[in-house]
């Protein structure tokens, strides 16, 4: 990219493009955090700045006054005679807290306060030239030398192999030459060492040199913090002044933009003074100035930092600052875990060629799953969001506003990247997206392979499990779509289908029309279409609370309910709750239970905290309910639908950690994944290899509509007598609320608990969903599922399996053993590689005890842990200071069964307190 005087100076990107450089910088930022971890150990446990960790003196009330500038330097805030309040911070350059007597570089940072909407950070060091030529050298050297002691020398040896002996020796010599003892920070000269723009055409470096002629005395040998004390004494006697100067770009050889190891100083181009910095007499060391998080990108476009060493500083300094502020975390993985995990990945990769994980003994299958999850975390988390590349300036850095509460739109869960996982954020990928064919006709696929011909029950589950997963999916994933007639997906009808009404009462048409999803445009790869999530990606109970601060859901700290304890309805008869699309009685039951739970918590919190206002009570109750939902899903719903000992133990370990008596598992995890020993809520957030988001593939594997029965019989919980019989269509939309009130919540829960959902398999898609009226459309939801999956770029089944490290299916009989199903497959698809992913997932024979396929399970084991592990409210901020100890105890003690007993006490006789509420109840 050529900038400024078009032939004079230019920037070039590492990796050949801004986005390639951005990805490299993201990895480098993690290495800077690893440096902080090494330095934290040396500092006794405190996370300090990655660079210039020890502040020696800082003031908040200095003055920067510009001189009479030449015309070409009169840019932005730099105007003749302009005066600005300036914060000044002096520091030692080391990433460790050392005595001021140690030889070191010294640093100076300025924050020029122009207005409430504009500030400029200028960073300098007491050496005129950088030791690192570029961002890679800068990062590798910091990581190699972090922590001090013997590790520093071992790091330098490793650096020889990373950067080569010549560059390593040059860098060490440069640093050693710059490290020296200082008598006063007021008598040092500080250089920027990297350039910035100054208007549209000028590039320059800047420096700060002392105007104060007073020499410093000999520092006292017994004072490790003498630099700060000396500055305090100096200011007690008078002011301290510095001259801000600039050195202009001359040519690419003498003053290169990208090579920071070249000294810009030249006798023919001496520094030009442009301003005077004055630290007033009597100024005091300021805690606010000490705590500044300076970054050269806190500026305006007129003064944009240049060169890759500057560009990496935005990511690196932000990561370092966020790490210090407990806004971003890094998981410290012991060496034994890295070695053992690598060995496990290789061992089980070989074992699984001959024997799948679910046919191993339980302890081995758990280790196998841990190794598989490690592989998936490394290779199957794909960020699709269009990110900032190249870096952009920010006149004022963002500050987190919601440290201890969940925002409704999901912002500020990750405080270092506030928009991560928020409403509107793009769905990621677990496997690379692909634009595939529209063939075969999805209507034909559905009729031949999906339509329910006779009800196939899932006998290990009850209908509460079916309602629960829809309740959860509405919290997790919602694609925005156009209304019918705006951007329709058109599916031609097969010759034997005479016509389709796309709207109630509309004409017969020769095609199905499906409202198209609203695309966010083209992704960073230049061709993939991105789709945003209408819900937040976080596990935050948004199906109950909504994605906005809408007051229609609230009554003070409580959620609005009728006097009888049911959800209120709007003028159209729809229940008022966080999300009520695709509404039916099962959803109404779940929403009512958790709205009641919220209101009980409000009463409990208010009784314990009478001084709290409604907002704090509401937000705390909301946190507790969201975490309770996550816990129930993790340790109850999942072991019910994946009913094996391995999954039951594995999901309990996810939440609670390894039981103390299970010494074999404790030894195994100590060796392979020590961070999992105590359960995810006792760890810190870890996004692993990509920023957090839910994925298009996650949406695909949670297409579980076969769980929905077509026919229902409702019983009186007290007598067992039949109250009514209905079809699904009698229980959906605005009819659901009337039925729930007629039955009563207890009878609805009892009837769902004693009946089976459908099995997730072929030929079991509900008839009721094949001609469903939804928001003015008539849809065949089975066709919609196929069309949506294809349109969103999910690969076909065999490619999907291969991307998830499973072997491709070569024979139809290996996909499904039923001869009639094989015949239909061969009739519908030209070859086995054309099979739609959803169809293939339904066709698989699941492992014993599983309610869905092993292929779908690959996405599940990756994303189930990720939804917990990435969320700070389920990890680092899962603590009494946020939830209250009462809240944490409530979550720990409440199961789905106990929650049902709390709100439907008459059901206690039907459901033992220690029973899984999602397993079939015994009808009495």
Task: Describe what this molecule looks like in 3D.
There is one protein chain. The chain is of the alpha+beta class and 924 residues long. The chain folds into two domains: 2-324, Catalase core domain (Catalase HpII,  Chain A, domain 1), CATH 2.40.180.10; 326-384 and 422-506 and 534-924, Myeloperoxidase, subunit C. It contains 28 helices and 23 strands. A hairpin with a 2-residue loop joins strand 18 and strand 19 (558-559). Helix 8 crosses helix 16 (663-672), helix 9 (362-379) crosses helix 15 and helix 10 (442-450) packs antiparallel against helix 23. It is elongated and about 100 Å long. The model is unreliable at 1-7 (pLDDT under 50).
Task: Write a compact overview of the structure shown.
By secondary structure, this protein is an alpha+beta fold. The chain has 28 helices and 23 strands.
Structural classification: alpha+beta
Largest sheet: 9 strands, antiparallel
Q: Let me know the number of strands.
A: 23
CATH-scheme architecture of the largest domain: Orthogonal Bundle
Give the tally of structural domains: 2
Our estimate of the beta-strand percent is 5-15%
CATH-assigned fold name of the largest domain = Myeloperoxidase, subunit C
CATH classification, class level of the largest domain: Mainly Alpha
Give the count of helical stretches. 28
CATH superfamily grouping of the largest domain? Haem peroxidase domain superfamily, animal type
Radius of gyration: 32 Å
* Spans where pLDDT lies below 50 across 5 or more residues: 1-7
Task: Report how far apart the termini are.
Answer: 76 Å
Q: Percent of residues in helical segments?
A: 25-40%
Shape: elongated
Mean pLDDT: 92
